[in-house]
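Hi everyone,

Forwarding the result from last night's run.
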Amino acid sequence: MAERIKIEIGSAFPFEEEKNMVVKGRDLVSGLPKTFTISSYEIRDALAEPISAIVSTIRSTLEETPPELSGDIMGDGILMTGGGSLLYGICQCIENETKIRVRRSEDPLTCVADGTGKVLEDTELMTQISSTISNIHSF
């Protein structure tokens, strides 16, 4: 139920029109089944702390990024991948906080696995990426 709520009315940035959802569950006080309505505002408030932690981690990572790579990030922006990138408004929230363009991958749920598979199939590409990573860590 929590996953369904997050998908349907969860957001990192306000909707143009706030949403509500009828939720069925067990009342923790009485132990009895209960139906209630929850708002997207309440869910956004509940997600505020983990979203803040994500933004803080991105900021600290950007602060520690070598200047050469920072220039690339400023030019190309941030590409979000994974299920978290599907949260409504997460890209806009991060963009507002970092002042860097943020976009979501076309296929955020599988793109990392697909890319890893391509690298593992191409030893020359794997060597090139390994060398690049070594150079970044040497800064």
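Residues 109-139 form one domain.

Cheers,
N.
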